[in-house]
Amino acid sequence: MRITGTGHASMRIDTGAGSILCDPWVNPAFFASWFPFPDNSLLDWETLGDVDYLYVSHLHRDHFDAAHLTQFVNKKATVLLPEYPTSQLEDELRALGFTSFLRTKSNQVHELDGGLKVMIQALISPTDGPIGDSSLWVEHDGIRVLNQNDARPSDLSVFAELGHVHAHMLQFSGAIWYPMVYELPNAAKTAFGKQKRDRQFDRTWRYIDDLKADHVFPIAGPPCFLDDDLWQFNDIHGDEGNIFPDQSVFMSEYAKVGGTNGVVLLPGSVSELTMAGAEAPSSVETTHPTDVDEFFANKTAHLEEMRERKAPVIAAEKASWRHPEIDVLGALKKRIEPLLEESIYMAKGVGGPVRFDLVSYDGTSVESIVVDFPGKQVRPYADEKVRYRFRTQRELIEHLIYIDEGDWVNSLFLSCRFSAARIGQYNEFVYAFFKCLSEERLQYAEGWYDEHEKEVDAEDTQFGDWTVQRRCPHLKADLSRFGIVDGNVLTCQLHGWKFDLPSGRCLTSVGHKIRAEKHETEKTEA
User: Fold this and answer.
1) Distance between terminal CA atoms of the chain?
2) Whether residue 474 has pLDDT greater than 80
3) Which residues belong to the signal peptide in this entry (predicted)?
4) Per-position b or e across 212-247, b if 16+ CB within 10 A of its CB
């Protein structure tokens, strides 16, 4: 089996029974904020895109690149489609010209021509990607690989049960806006960023240890930031709180925990996986287009060259954002108020008004608009107290309205082109709602929360003297595997959520109370 690195989470898998192109991303994403690094735009995409199968893990724009799919990927390729609750991924691929789809069943092995086997595990909670994320397992001629990309399954046992995995591709770097955009003192940002960076690595080590593959490939990040306004987010400034460490940092940190089987894929790197025998570990031989250590040693120079080369691309994108003819308040009322009327669980979960400060083109004035969840309306800000506030350029909201964007998380928020402030804990319902600015998504998310709120989790697990419900109240991770207790605080390492065991209160977000009981140790008389 041959694995060709094509950048970020993208790769081409070649077997004797066909080829699979995964998540090809080349063009800038999220308001021209994210670019693939190392640069993959100079690869021979005409050849790479001539494949038998296409796998797009989910609709995040650093995985779903519509322009690139249209121009370079063979439309006769069969799409390996995850089993998602909405049809948006299939609809968007059909709109690009793809007509052949294998609608997989989650966690079910599908045998294709020539003995090629695939299985896709779809994650379907409202907080998984843009309503969905997935992982791809592939087997041919005795070799098995798992492309986990940036999915966060609560359990990898479904893959391990199919046989020993020889190559494991997974995310290790950040893919979010926290804590960089928050209006916090620099020392606090650094501290929170370091916590997140450490948690990212801890989660990665846990996944690696669970699967115990012969070879580990760090993929799905980090992006690079080439706009001058975002340049500080690149991990080149010696900031221990930067959440975007690159593959060379992964290899260094992995070595500290005893990892010796890491394989870096640059765009154009080729890894050949072979079996030495039924009981022997697989071997891998990798060739690179350039020396890997030397490349990352000169990372800043590579980024500066990319910044100069991509500057016209960013300028052209920025020129398209302004739509002064749009009445922002009126358009948001028309779009959001009907959804607020239908929202029960998310509106209750947000529990208050959310404020957007829109800075004018010239930066001299600000229009403040409130999405009032209890009042079920969008209106001008009325000097009331809000727990969440976002500040961004007016043209970005105009553009979201102009393109009828139904997912502000997969556009505005991931762009990092905003600042945020909040009072109190993180509230997942705020971001879940702004992923769901369409009837289909809103109805699915409301139904999901309704179903899970009614669930009664009867299974328990033990942490010393504590008996705790086995499944995390957040996204049902198995706490017997992902939970750690320090004093009276339990942390779920899958997403870093913390719970106060004596009270059951979630320390990370509103709601999500955990069931826990402490058993006093019996004392025996001497």
Assistant:
1) 66
2) no
3) none
4) ebbbbbbbbbbbbbbbeebeebbbbeebebbbbbbb
pTM for the complete prediction? 0.87
Cα Rg of the chain, angstroms: 23
Q: How many CB atoms lie within 10 A of CB 114?
A: 12
pLDDT of 524 above 60:
no
Contact yes or no for 34/225 (Cβ under 8 A): yes
* β partners of residue 12: 4, 21
The residue with tokens 């950048």 is: 7
Instruction: Give the residues across from 420 on adjacent strands.
Output: 182, 390
Choose among 425, 445, 447: nearest CA to 433. 445
Over the chain, what is the mean pLDDT?
93
Angle at 85 between CA 79 and CA 91, to 5 degrees: 45
Sequence-separated (6 or more) residues with CB below 8 Å from residue 281: 166, 214
Q: Say if strands 78-81 and 101-103 run parallel, antiparallel, or are unpaired.
A: parallel
Q: In this structure, what token pair is assigned to residue 416?
A: 């990092």
Tokens of 163: 């046989």
* Residue that the structure tokens 């402030």 belong to: 421
pLDDT tens-digit readout, 396-426: 999 999 999 999 999 999 999 999 999 988 8
Count of CA atoms in the C-beta half-sphere (13 A) of 92: 14
Tokens of 2: 């041959």
Cβ burial 374-413 (10 Å sphere, 16+ → b, else e): eebebeebeeeebbbbbbbbbbbbbbbbbeebbbbbbbbb
- List pLDDT tens digits, range 353-369: 999 999 999 999 999 99
Please give the helix or strand (H or E) that residue 198 lies within, else none. Answer: helix 186-211
Burial of 314 (0-12, 13-18, 19+ CB in 10 A): buried
Give the ranges where 237-360 is alpha helix by DSSP (H): 247-256, 292-297, 299-319, 328-342, 345-350
Residue 134's CB is within 10 A of a number of other CB atoms, namely 29
Instruction: Report the distance separating Cα 317 and Cα 322, nearest Å.
Output: 10
Q: Exposure string (b/e) for 178-211, b if CB count within 10 Å is 16 or more?
A: bbbbeebeeeebbebbbebbebbbbbbbebbebb
The number of CA neighbours under 13 Å toward the Cβ of 114 is 12
> What is the SS3 string spanning 136-191?
EEEEECCEEEEEEECCCCCCCHHHHCCCCCCEEEEECCCCCCCCCCECCCHHHHHH
Q: Locate tokens 């990352």: which residue?
A: 296
- For the cut 50, the answer to whether the pLDDT of residue 223 exceeds it is yes
- The total of other beta-carbon atoms located within 10 Å of residue 481's CB is 18
Task: Give phi and psi for 311, each to the nearest 5.
Answer: -55, -45
